[in-house]
Amino acid sequence: MSAIRYELDSDQILTLTIDMPGQSANTLNAAFREGLSETAVKVKSDLDNIRGVIIASAKKTFFAGGDLKELHKVTREEAKTFEDTVNGLKADMRFLETSGKPVVAAINGTALGGGLEIALACHHRVAIDDDSIQLGLPEVTLGLLPGGGGTQRLPRMIGLEAAFPFLMEGKKVNPKAALKAGIVDELANSADDMIAKARAFIDANPKCQQPWDQKGFKFPGGAPHHPAMAQKLAIAPAMLKQKTKGCYPAPERILCAAVEGAQVDFDNGSLIETRYFAELVTGQVAKNMTGAFWFQLNAIKAGGSRPDGVGKETFRKVGVLGAGMMGAGIAYSTATRGIDVVLKDVSLENAEKGKSYSEKLLARKVSRGRMTEEQKAKILGRIKATESADDLEGCDLVIEAVFEDSELKARVTREAEPKLVANGIFASNTSTIPITQLAGASRKPENFIGLHFFSPVDRMQLVEIIVGEQTANETLARAFDYVQQIGKIPVVVNDSRGFFTSRVFGTFVNEGIGMLGEGIHPSSIENAALLAGMPVGPLAISDEVSMTLIQHIRNQSKKDTEAAGGTWNAHPAEAVIDTMVYEHGRKGKAAGAGFYDYPANGKKHLWPELEALFVDAQKARNIRLQELKDRILFIQAIETVRCLEEGVLRTVEDANIGSIFGIGYAPWTGGTLQFINQYGVRAFTERATELARAYGERFAPPRLLLERAESNSPLA
Ligand code: NAI
Q1: What is the CATH number of the domain that holds 633?
Q2: Known catalytic residue at 117
Q3: Which residue from 206, 472, 677, 698 has the least number of CB within 10 angstroms?
Q4: What is the CATH number of the domain that holds 344?
Q5: What does DSSP say about strands 4-8 and 13-18: parallel, antiparallel, or unpaired?
Q6: What is the pLDDT of residue 557?
Q7: Considering its fold, how many domains does the chain have in total?
Q8: Which helix H or strand E contains 672, and what residues bound it?
Q9: How close is the Cα of 328 to the center of ligand 1, in Å?
Q10: Which of 282, 307, 331 represents a domain boundary (last residue)?
Q11: Burial 331-345 (b: 16+ CB within 10 A, else e)
């Protein structure tokens, strides 16, 4: 069965319906290419009998885009063959585009990537006016570029500048916005209306040619040599570099393909695009990003870490204890997904204050036209602010987010548990206290679990689920269901101090602060982190977290380690933090002073005194940037291996996704473990050994890594 149905009707209108056999969505793979090339041959022979062509889809969506399984496998050695294949496909699309007959895309559903590119190759696009339909070119988010003509056609349709957010940021729009942007030409109110409009276009335009194939074509918004455009393009690469820090080749190559392609005719532009496409597809960053943001994320969403054999649960009523920063965010994220929330604090006033956080976020949505007043009122109506534990009666789940204090947490656990439905679950949002220890206060430790949210909860997508020693598989499965029900990404880890994300995050912060202690200039440290791909420098983030909190966590860990008979290996960062807090009273951002100064009417900047206090002029001069970048990326990757080795982490997917979405570990790497795999496990181990010699045992490769290094086999 061909991927494309060919139906030429008595009206001489040819409908090409894309319907890939055995797939729920259409994708651009070998079967599609074959179908398209057969179709092109048939159209050629029927051309005299065809008045026009409608390209439609038999699926719920129009077309999902490139087949990532196929793209992920292409190696550098196969680059030439890959280019030929891509150019072959593009030639078939181009044949339809230049046949002289009107070709219309009937966009019945979401069209992304290669799907939208097929539509762009048509002379006219009619889309059903349904806000759930998405149109866009998201390739860049996976380290790729739209290689099916997107970087050439879209700028020629709407201008370079207007095309950049779609091409370089992967912006997606609904049909209304697409019409406004000039990406679609007409909206339809039903499938029949869409086809009627497509036919009407064909009737009205018996001969069709794309604007860029017509003589005297003028590039909308100006071609690159137009003075105003030339001026903008001269600074575009620098502005882009400021965003990518040189870590992301895709947006840079997209800019090249679009601008270079705009200076030649369409066909040569298309060849330029293919070259850059092949470079990205076979490059390491696309492999890392596609691996993490597509395959691994999908594996997690499909329930890879959810125990089998437990029926899926739908949560109806959730209690949140503590209406502070975290509790208020959890309440918001839960209520917006249609779940009733009881938000309890010590006083009604506190609880109402926590609820007002939701009010504020929702009001912003209303003012931006993303929500109606009724929808807002409905969501707020789901949150009951209270000071009484009795209101928790009938909750399926209670999450505590009270102060980080074991005794208080024990007290609220005992108070809330009896109110749960039979077999309800109780979760703690603690960031540091072991779940097994907290479960000691529970009547049903098998129903006790950790749900570690990240701040700000409404924006952070990750939830780290922590399985205590006695937590039942059923409890884990149900907690997983709750996290998915509120639209967040669950990663599952076993209990240990700091769990996974906080442990790894701690190594990042300590490494940066330790560098300062060695005499390295603070600007070099912050910049090295940003250039390595971290979203924020270690000194800036320490200020955000507050140095007193870092001290508190460290002291607790030290106490526990020593109580368990272990020895505490002091990190060089500790002395720096103590100096900052005890000698200079600089506790962090909330206190108004930390590694940075926070002027009332200006931008924050590094505290100038840091230089006199810590910087060693000679060391600061001789430091190599790569060395700092390596230390920042390596220390987090090594700690992740330790978590894997100790059984804190259960899967490589959870490690990679958890590190990117929880800590902000450089997304170009594909996550902490993928960083090692792509570096080469043996090469990584050798470099780690060098770093250990220079900076201390914390860089020493763990046993698991040494074993893998022998065979140079990836962590999988
Ligand atoms: P917060 O200080 O903003 O809020 C705590 C709230 O708990 C306060 O409103 C307090 O009145 C309330 N509370 C105290 N005793 C109570 C009781 N008996 N019943 C009900 N409410 C009570 O603290 P935050 O930052 O929201 O943290 C809460 C928990 O979440 C802590 O365990 C913290 O370690 C954890 N966490 C914090 C993160 C952060 O970034 N702040 C990240 C992840 C977890």
Answers
A1: 1.10.1040.50
A2: yes
A3: 206
A4: 3.40.50.720
A5: antiparallel
A6: 86
A7: 3
A8: helix 672-679
A9: 9
A10: 282
A11: bbbbbbbebbbbbbb
Q: Which of 64-68, 189-193, 203-207, 455-459 has the lowest mean pLDDT?
A: 64-68
Q: Please give the backbone phi and psi of residue 426, each rounded to the nearest 5 degrees, phi first.
A: -120, 130
Are 551 and 695 members of one domain? yes
| Phi, psi dihedrals of residue 286, rounded to the nearest 5° | -65, -40
**CATH code (residue 104):** 3.90.226.10
Assess whether 89 and 194 both reside in one domain.
yes
Is residue 109 lining ligand 1, measured as CB closer than 6 Å?
A: no
**Residue 9, class by beta-carbon neighbours within 10 Å (0-12 exposed, 13-18 middle, 19+ buried)?**
exposed
Residue-wise pLDDT for 539-565, tens only, equals 999 999 999 999 998 998 898 889 889
When pLDDT is cut at 50, 70 and 90, the band that residue 496 belongs to is confident
The answer to whether 632 touches 532, Cβ cutoff 8 Å, is yes
413 lines ligand 1 (CB under 6 A): no
pLDDT > 80? residue 481: yes
Between CA 119 and CA 126, with CA 125 as vertex, the angle to 5 degrees is 125
**188-240: pLDDT as tens digits:** 999 999 999 999 999 999 999 999 999 999 999 999 999 999 999 999 999 99
Residue 497 confidence (pLDDT): 83
Distance 581 CA to ligand 1 centre (A): 23
Q: Is the CB of 346 under 6 A from ligand 1?
A: yes
Q: In this structure, which residue's CA is closest to atom 8 in ligand 1?
A: 324
Of 7, 34, 70, 117, catalytic:
117
- Tell me the CB-side half-sphere exposure of residue 568, using CA atoms within 13 A: 15
CB atoms within 10 A of CB 609: 11
- Integer Cα distance of 239 and 249 in angstroms: 14
Of 7, 38, 97, 139, catalytic: 139
Same domain for 640 and 513: yes
Residue 716 lies in a domain: no
Burial classification of residue 680, based on how many CB atoms lie within 10 Å of its CB (0-12 exposed, 13-18 middle, 19 or more buried): middle
Single residue among 496, 514, 529 that ends a domain in this structure: 496
Nearest CA to ligand 1 atom 30: 401
Under 8 Å between Cβ of 148 and 89: yes
Within this chain, do residues 525 and 489 fall inside the same structural domain, yes or no? no
